[in-house]
Amino acid sequence: MHAIVRIAGVQARIAPGDKVFLPKLDAEVGSTITINEVLALTDGEMIALGTPLVEGARVEAEVLRHARDQKILVFKKRRRKRYQRTRGHRQAFTEVKVTTIVVPGSAPEAEAPALEEAPASEAQVPAAEA
Q1: CA distance to 36, 69, 72, per residue, from 89 (Å)
Q2: CA-to-CA distance for 98 and 61, rounded, in angstroms?
Q3: pTM, rounded to two decimals
């Protein structure tokens, strides 16, 4: 089971057990967060695409830590003008571990519930093997 979610301005493809680095979130370490913006779901055979979101789907994840990424250098120079500027930046991030993906119409404890079979349309396309 995989899901594509949108959180804090980024989109990520996640599965239960994945560790994901997201832009810094306002959540305590060890707490559970719920991601309600699920754009697509797949169970290996069928894909459910949202318009724009999949109704009733959500992802629950545990916050593991807050940290800062490696430093990047931003260097500006204008040749023959005696102009040089060097700046550094470290982006703050939050590492989360995905615990469950809740599909609409199923129990949250279900390991990998099947999505509903619907007639072939633009909203559902057979998934490619990854």
Answers
A1: 31, 9, 5
A2: 4
A3: 0.70
Q: What is the pLDDT of residues 10-41, one digit of tens each?
A: 999 999 999 999 999 999 999 999 999 999 99
Find the distance separating the first CA and the last CA of the chain, reported in whole Å: 12
Q: Six-digit token pair at 97? A: 């571990």
* Amino acid, res. 40: A
Block residue for tokens 């700046």: 87
Is 95 buried (19+), middle (13-18) or exposed (0-12) by CB count in 10 A? middle
Strand ranges for the chain from DSSP E: 2-7, 10-14, 19-23, 32-35, 38-42, 47-49, 58-68, 72-78, 83-89, 92-102
Separation CA 41–CA 129 (nearest Å):
15
Integer angstrom CA distances of residue 77 from 56, 74, 88: 51, 10, 15
